[in-house]
Amino acid sequence: MRTPDADVPYGTLDLIVLKTLDAMGPLHGYGIARRIEQQAQGMLALNQGTIYPALLRLQQKGWIRSQWGTSENNRRARFYEITRAGKSQLAVETEIWERAVSIMARMLEVKS
Hints:
By secondary structure, the protein is α+β, with helices and mostly antiparallel strands. It is built from 4 helices and 3 strands, in the order αβααββα. 55% of the residues lie in helices and 14% in strands.
């Protein structure tokens, strides 16, 4: 049986990261993970082994870009921001996800 703090559902992390960067502006990896956890109100737990491969994948696709900067605790950190291509992909992914949620909601309402 799965617990509320289960892994991120397959195929949703890219959308979640893109949405976070679109809403919040540039953030470092740790900040992205903490913001997602905050928004999920304890329903998700992200670790470095989850967030950093996703950031690398998104950067390789051209949906985010990064640059080095200084974090709020005065440490060197890589800051990520969404690109124009990332904003377009966010719109596509959002539409796909909303359609999937709508289908699942209808299926769960069906009485057997």
